[in-house]
């Protein structure tokens, strides 16, 4: 069996990678504290992508659990969450950060952000989209209460926790190591994460 | 003072309408049981629209309350929820229904749906977009629990309840009287709603 290469998702940066049907991508929270924003598109058809609002309607839940499919905006199962060693708290309700968001948080100069990382990652593959879909924010801990109030809290994962997502259809996966260093979601210290592509 | 015209949003249909900065749109749940999916775009710049995931990040809440702005995907306040006579339960986490959704619910022929209503409403104004943003589902009652599980429940509104949304920037508002007749959100009887454009 060939050794599986472990790739670095650098701190504050994004990366896009093809994952063919049957293959899986394992996303590793190397330090335990790092949120990874995640998107996936149908390969060759960038108008179809994981739709978090479509996922929630089918899950009838705010976040995915092991065994759940990740559905597209056409309601097709694009990937399946087949393994999750973390406490299973992933966010689907908060937008990927963008430069405007950091402006509202007090930044006066450009701040690295998941939205631009998403587009930069796609561009490295020669791909682009004219919008930014909602992301699945892996390991991001956004507790809600009975009144629907939300908090931005540190990740609950331990170092080395990972999720494994199997592609059901050839897809382009996009990851961003979230550069958020003002709110507490990355313990205010954005770091690198890692990923592996597992064979079918 | 000129009389304010009350327009019908027909059962199972959509409508788009320009609302200029300072004007408001009042959306009336005439029968109390009807969900109205809602979107708004910056007039002349259809790439900027209300982003429910950006709204939730700034609200730090799953749904809007009176006084909240509705923020765009560029984090600008496009409209403000200035009045709400309903119990205030509006959904932002469930996707607008589409024909594929009805297929998953057992329909074998075309079913009216909010996604197509959204695009048909825009087309009547000569406008189109290559995607369907997440909607604010006015009067839609999707209770959540401590574990993040969601339910599709009947609206809590009484006949005549309304919300008033003031435009902060010239915008194109889009509404769909949700045709969902399988789940309970419209008490399984989709009906018409009404709307008014109020002067600045």
Number of H/I helices of chain A: 3
DSSP strand (E) fraction of chain A? 25-35%
Whole-number total of structural domains of chain A: 1
Overall mean pLDDT score of chain A? 97
SSE series of chain A: EEEEEHEEHHEEEE
Going across the major beta sheet of chain A, what is the strand order?
A: 1-11-3-9-7-6
- The percentage helix of chain A is 10-25%
Quaternary state reads homodimer
Question: How many DSSP E strands of chain A?
Answer: 11
Described by the principal axes of the CA atoms, the overall outline of chain A is globular
Whole-angstrom Rg of chain A? 16 Å
Spans where pLDDT lies below 50 across 5 or more residues of chain A: none
Largest interface: A-B, 38 and 38 residues
| Class based on secondary structure composition and strand pairing of chain A | alpha+beta
Distance between the termini of chain A: 12 Å
Major sheet size, sense and barrel closure of chain A: 6 strands, antiparallel
Describe this structure in words.
2 copies of one chain form a homodimer. Helix content of chain A is 12%, strand content 31%. By secondary structure, chain A is of the alpha+beta class. The first copy, chain A, has one domain (9-195). Chain A has a 6-stranded antiparallel sheet with strand order 1-11-3-9-7-6. In chain A, strands 2, 4, 5, 8 and 10 form a 5-stranded antiparallel sheet that branches. The longest helix of chain A has 11 residues, at 114-124. Chain A is globular. The first copy, chain A, starts with 5 loop residues before the first strand and ends with a strand. Chain A binds chain B through residues 47, 51-54, 56-63, 73-76, 93-96, 98, 100-101, 103-104, 130-132, 134, 144, 146-152, and chain B through 47, 51-54, 56-63, 73-76, 93-96, 98, 100-101, 103-104, 130-132, 134, 144, 146-152.
């Amino acid at each position: 069996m060939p050794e599986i290469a472990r790739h670095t998702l650098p701190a504050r940066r994004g990366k896009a990678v093809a994952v063919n049907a049957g293959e899986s991508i394992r996303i590793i929270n190397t330090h335990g504290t790092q949120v990874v924003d995640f998107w996936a598109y149908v390969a060759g058809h960038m108008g179809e992508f994981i739709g978090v609002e479509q996922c929630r309607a089918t899950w009838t839940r705010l976040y995915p659990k092991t065994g759940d499919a990740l559905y597209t905006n056409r309601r097709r199962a694009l990937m399946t969450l087949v393994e999750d060693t973390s406490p299973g708290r992933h966010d689907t309700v908060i937008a990927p950060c963008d430069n405007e968001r950091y402006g509202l948080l007090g930044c006066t100069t450009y701040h690295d952000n998941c939205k631009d990382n998403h587009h930069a990652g796609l561009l490295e593959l020669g791909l682009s989209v004219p919008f930014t879909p909602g992301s699945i924010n892996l390991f991001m801990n956004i507790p809600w209460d009975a009144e629907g109030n939300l908090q931005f809290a540190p990740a609950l994962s331990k170092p080395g926790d990972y999720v494994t997502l199997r592609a059901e259809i050839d897809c382009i996966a996009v990851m961003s190591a979230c550069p958020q260093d003002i709110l507490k979601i990355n313990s205010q210290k954005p770091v690198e994460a890692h990923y592996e592509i597992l064979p079918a």
